[in-house]
Amino acid sequence: MSRVVIYLTLPKEVRDVYASRLGQRFPELEIDVADHHSKAAAFMPSADILVTFGAMMKAEVLRNAPSLKWAQALGTGVDGLIDQPLLRPDVIITNIRGIHGAPVSEAAIMAMLALSRGFAEHVRNQDRMSWTRWPPKLLDGKTVGIFGIGLIAEALAPKCKALGMTVIGFTSSKRALPGFDRMHLRDEFLQIAPELDYLVLLVPYSEETRRLIDARMFAAMKPTSYLINLARGGIVDEDALMEALENGRIAGAALDVFQQEPLPADHPLWKTRNVIITPHQGGFCDVYAERALPTIEHNMDCFLRGDIDGMVNVVRR
Question: 49 phi and psi, to 5 degrees?
Answer without folding.
Answer: -135, 140
